Records
---
Amino acid sequence: MAWRYFLSREVPSELEGLQELAQDLRWTWSPQADRIWRRVDSQLWNATRNPWLILEVISQKRLEELAGDPEFRQELSRQLEERKQYLERPTWFDLRYPSPETCGPVAYFSMEFGLAEALPIYSGGLGILAGDLLKAGSDLGVPIVGVGLLYQQGYFRQSIAPDGHQVEYFPFNDPALLPIVPLRDQDGQWIKVAVELPGRTLHLRAWKAVVGRVELYLLDSNDPLNTPADRTITGVLYGGGPELRLQQEMVLGIGGWRLVESLGIRCSVCHLNEGHAALAAIERAHSFLDEEGVSFWEALWATRGGNLFTTHTPVPAGFDQYDPALLERMLGSYVENELKIPFEDFLRLGRLWGRRDEPFNMAYLALRVCSATNAVSRLHQEVSRRLFAPLFPRWPKWELPIEVVTNGVHVPSWEHPEADAFWNRFCSEERWREPTEVLVEQVRKASDEELWELRNRCRCALITVARKRAYRACACRGAAPEELQQCQCLFDPNTLTLGLARRFTAYKRPTLLLHDPERLVRLINHPTRPVQLVVAGKAHPLDSTGRDLVRQWVLFSERPDVRGKVLFLEDYDMELAAEIVCGVDLWVNTPRRPWEACGTSGMKILAHGGLNVSELDGWWAEAYSPEVGWAIGDSGEHGDDPGWDAQEAEQLYTLLEKEIIPTFYERDHRGIPVRWVQKMRESMSRLTPYFSANRMVRDYVDGYYTTLSQRYARRAAKGGRIARELFQWERELQSHWKGIHFGPLETETVEGEYRFTLPVYLDEISPDWVEVELYAEPLPETSAPVIVRMSRGQKLVGSINGFLYHASVPANRPSSDFTPRVRPFHPEACVPSEVTPILWYR
Ligand SMILES: *Cc1c(COP(=O)(O)O)cnc(C)c1O
């Protein structure tokens, strides 16, 4: 039996299972969903895409009717069978990791999750990524649970006023109508967790959303036991000032980890999606400390082995930073009474210099409480290494412990039924539940005709919905009948269709195409090679620049000379995004490098055969090649220099005029643009499988979750024996590192080799606990430095802990390129992620 918020709804026994089906957000990516929910109530389904809500509000009479409809019952049982199969079939994960010790459960913490419009607890890319990750985790059978917050208000909805201004509406998230249920224990008791705030206890209610095989747990503070102010802590996503933000992060991190534990889930891996969630790692250590009776630092050594931090920010301003006084007020007693460490020591985890007024940086905290950190595109890895370099003084940038897992999108959630049907012709229906590398060659087999047909169908699908949306918006504004009439014939189904949809904020440069409006008008109205344009996006309510950018597009679209060919669609959300990415021939993305950490919207068009023209930033910097699309920019960084913006606008216009538009309109005798179609084929086959959440999740599992899970298990075993040893090791290094010094380096050249000999005095540090190495910067054309371990030879007579170290290297570059250094070593430690000292010979 499914628990409900209000226990009022009796579903006739003939419809058993309908509630489970309605609750499982797999409707957002199951091609069958439409078939059943439209039958239940097509109007509600079209308006809300929320089966849970439909079941909540339709009449008992309608349910009885459906119960008496044999066709409906048949459809239901087909879908229940299909769901059962989905849940029970062996998955990629089962087959790859049959032994449960390889990878324990993963808890994935995120401030936002974009799973469906029916559950509006996201604002943009970060949340969509988290949602796509859970969905792909479900498809692949990864043992993962999501942890997030249930906001009483969804992110704002947008409409456009007659004068072109953005108007915001803040919808109320009625928990009874969201596809979530209270999380109850076996006795039916609503599960709650508590977090201490100054002078009071914050009571948090727990909810559950079902995402296929995966569960997402959400906490909210709107409990009558809390003070009125505390009840609004989970009121709005990213709302309020620093105090509220910190409280939300305490709820997510501390409350979230407590919730996972109270459910009896013994997580081995804690994955922090952005620094907001860093307190989860602190609470994890707290829990270990309580259970094993060790110190906080020993507990941190144990648990950090299983923590992963994904950073999404390309600029320092993107990090959450808190005034230490605020932090002390909110967390002081937790740190001193629960973690049992001086508050000053805690502060050090989030700071660089330790000046009194230095803010506490949540990203620094996240990095220091995790044994692995990853960026979200290769370019972002470089940028992140720059941002975090101050945490690793004297370490070469090549060795900074920030790895990369490039983001991907959950293709089944974004692909239009037309695209699904197309892919089904060449690939297995199970394609997104299995490794995707095989798809590359399969989809390449598509003929020119098939590819072009797909493109035309998808473009038409967009035009149909664009007309409907435009009609509705016009009607709401009270437009005249002739204007409404015009909405019905907006756009032309054979015209090259450009799309851009994004957050309207300065760095995304959403109006780059408007740099020279007359030139754009000429492109649009070209007599034989016209283009049309779909635009959407919201500006943050407080971002007046962004709001002005929205208005510029709206006003442009109302110019009489482009009317019917340029459309600003209001209220950009997941649903509108899916409609747009399906239909556009060309996706235009123009961020200022390197401010787009990855970007995912351009990946959503791939499965539909859309092509990208984009700044060489984020994912496009690694995806682009001339065979798959077009690029602007020069791979350099130019800040917000308006001169450079102008130059790039020029570059974009020229590329469109000379290259892109002619390619689209150059047809062979069949009417097919052969060069365009060839690019589609390359883009679809090379990029779609790789830039999918399927590949991303497999990268996380193979590269991180398994390693972290086992590392944690080793460190935690026997009451944290290894963790305690690591703690001692770190202490010893700290006390004696300054005493390490070198004797003179000697270099001989023998038979084409350099032989280096170096006396090293290790103070009281055991020689097993350090490594002496030769280091040389990468040669031109390579990206990895040369690191050669020096072997320890005889003890130096008369010395305390002094040894002679040796190494030989090929003499193919000057011997002065090689510099000896001493760094910490322990087989169970991650260096320099967890301990950072390093000593260079010079
Ligand atoms: C995919 C998506 C995003 C992320 O887009 P980027 O511009 O690539 O960061 C944001 N909002 C919505 C509604 C989306 O669907």
---
Amino acid sequence: MHLLALATTIFLLICNGCASPISDSSLDKRQTTSKYCSAESNLCYLQISTTASNPVFRIAIPDGTSAPFEILLQIIAPVSNGWAGFAWGGGMIANPLTVAWPNGNKVTVSSRWSSGRTLPGTYSGATYKTLSSSKNSTHWMAEVVCTGCSKWSGGQLSTTGINTFAWALSRTAVQQPASASSSFSIHNNLGQFSTDLSSAKVSQSVFQQHIKSAATA
Ligand code: HEM
Ligand SMILES: *[C@@H]1O[C@H](CO)[C@@H](O)[C@H](O)[C@H]1NC(C)=O
């Protein structure tokens, strides 16, 4: 009997995914990107989706601009998600993180930044305006405008080339749902993907009109 092999196997089984930084190859890259057009909001978004138990993200940006520009972001998450996050530079560290969670029948959106793989701190370099948010028996959702998500210290989004984004979710509810500076626990699922933003571009007038009409709705 190879005791060492047995012990190693048991350790690997127990410790599957513990501690060490994830390598790129183990990140889920099976995202589907598509163009999603909403009759309701009268514009089209770049949509990123995986499976029904993960959040869907939708992004729209004003055409004809380069960073910094404002970004429309929708997060639609199943109620099993305690929080869902989007990383604008494609990893956990040193890029704006948009983190959202349900708060009663609304959603709290929190601006975060992390310099390590620990609870990200709040980040004043990005600000959010919530256009709508809601929660029902199956999903919670928020649509926000982010100022500060397209350019940050050390990076920016390209409107012509490929960008790498990442997302994360936890199945544990956050500690203080009403507070944007709430603590929360580590993700249960992560993904990373690369895409250009061509499907996210909408005319500047449509972009601004959508923000205006949502704000007065
Ligand atoms: C309490 C909060 C958090 C803790 C303790 C934490 C911790 C970690 C750890 C230990 C890893 C290494 C791989 C692993 O063990 O799974 C990791 C990776 C990652 N985390 Fe977090 N995380 C937190 C929140 C977040 C948030 C809010 C986001 C995004 C909005 C995020 C995005 C990522 C991504 C994309 C990776 C993989 C790529 C990379 O390592 O940079 N994390 N995190
Ligand atoms: C619940 O909310 C989600 C996200 O907004 C929506 O897609 C879905 O149609 C809603 N379901 C019901 C039953 O209203």
